[in-house]
Amino acid sequence: MLITLIFIIGYAAIAFEHQIKINKTASALLVGTVCWTFYVLDNQEITSIQEQLSHHLSGIAEILFFLLGAMTIVELIDAHQGFKLITDQISSKKSVSLLWTIGLIAFFLSAILDNLTTSIVMVSLLRKIISNADQRKFFAGIVIIAANAGGAWSPIGDVTTTMLWIGGQISAIGIMKQLFLPSFVSLAIPLIYLSFKMKGQIIDSQVVNEDTFTETTPKERNIMFFVGLGTLLFVPIFKTITHLPPYMGMMLGLGIVWLVGEVLHSEKDEEERKPLTASYALSRIDSSSILFFLGILLAISCLESSNLLHDLAASMNENIGNQDIIVLLIGLASAIVDNVPLVAATMGMYDLSLFPTDHKIWEFLAYCAGTGGSILIIGSAAGVAVMGMEKIDFVWYLKRISLLALLGYFAGAAVYLFF
């Protein structure tokens, strides 16, 4: 009872971090460590609990090292202005054409990178081509939907999908085959609706110069862009060939990108090369996000070890019964609270021996948790990032974007269940 109460209080603190003005990472770390503390104090089998904690920590570490590697590689590409290869190709100023272009780029880029990184890159792009703040806000809202939809069908596109992949609930090929169409539909429905509504207005645009990067040559940009993206794409292939955990492939990729960067700038002096090094990129990544995942996954593992999640699963199955409805509700809940703890909790609720790899429940969970977060702006990491960058109000998003995201969510879910 006490562990459950601590978790609920901590969960509420995470959900309302902006209202109470306490960073969610602090709340997550406190919840994770305090839950285990009370669990061990209330139990005589200390050795058994230590073994349980060590078992869970190995799985948590795999996720954290994977994220650390991916975030560093993306930061290195960005430091070299590698994403200019994409942004320089966009020339359309008609709203409908630009809407589809931005949406599709975000959708596919999110599958290669991740939804958080993609949303940051795409908002930076929007600032360069749309000067009107209100128009840019609307396109930023579409970026959130597109980035979350793109992340749902890729093993490296969303933290929750990555968790399911590393945990053995889904396979890389399986999730891509089964969720590509539903995820695309969840984006296409809002875009089709807006295509009729926007009527081809011309975007109020001007080129906005943002000279905040260390200048790099086209050769350096191209090399880092293709090497970086190539190593990210190679991670699922590496896992398939070697059967080693995905974080090993990501660490291999980081080592390659790091080495290429060192060779590329070996002739430059220390001051000139410092902003372009992997060690500097490591200092720029969002470390608080890594610690947030550590805290929340520790808390969830405590609930699992104390059999609370098993009891919750049994209760939901008994009272609701239909697993499709349960997963749909989890997806809707992820619009209100962070989808990481929701998915982590669900992973603990259902046993892999009963629901093996690529079982329908895991694939549907990946879709619902990934795309459901778009319904409210606080429901995903991508939404929170865009909210901060463009100063988008919660109510504004609720009025302009939420219904579109909701329509896409149910349309994609219907497509998945139909097939």
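The above is record 1. Record 2 follows with the same two-line structure.
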Amino acid sequence: MSAAPRPYDHELAVLATMHAKERVIAPLLERALGLRVRVSNGIDTDRFGTFSRDVERTGSQLDAARAKIAAAFADTPDAQVALASEGTFGPHPYIPFLPLAREIVVLADRASGLELIGHHASPTTNFSHAVVSDVGAARAFAERAQFPEHGVIVMGVIDGQPAPARALIKDIRNTEDLEYAVTKVIGMCGAAFVETDMRAHRNPTRMRAIKRATLDLVRRFRSPCPVCAAPGFAVTERLAGLPCSWCGGPTLAIRAEVLSCSACGHRIENLVPPTTADPGQCSDCNP
């Protein structure tokens, strides 16, 4: 990676984070692009939404990242480049009972108008929760969640649903802290909602995913458009509809990848192997 030209040699890039994401983002972007990454300490990124639900995120994952970038530029007027990352966690769209983590890392250059987005999506996540009525159940959940290397949070519960407005305890460092928090919340609510802490500095698995999204950002930067040479000519869309090998009808399987340039609009559609889909992916042959 270090052998390629560094387009931003010693250029300041301000990163909007409160959760130590610079640990994985800064070394990669300095080595690959030459950026001198500095954390914008004057920004409360929690105001754009928290995983613990005490501050609801408005808009999409990308909207939140762009809001962080706008705040970073406002906080550091001399910066040409700003960076932000945002994650989402939830059920896998196609595989039942499997969680899916999605990370993006966004780079914005306000001099050129360039915006690049690195992506990483994977079921490799400890994202989970449990409603517990005793300390033993909370300890068992925490062990499955890889606590204390990975953090957990404890919040109130109403009708089986998380109620952070009732109680919310973060930064639980050890078993004694966990037992105290769970006992306190159970005393208030009759049960406690225990969940993995998805903040990057309390979740090494998520931090590794942010690193992979940053690597994807670098790959996209190093993929110039064949028409205008702007960076970022990469896969922006995957098209479903691969024909079923039995009936020939369209399936949910991917038939093509679309590469496009945000600068000039050039677009290429590449077919992906195989040429037909397994009938198990066909709604007609395997309803």
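The chain has three domains: 1-124+200-222, 129-197, 225-287.
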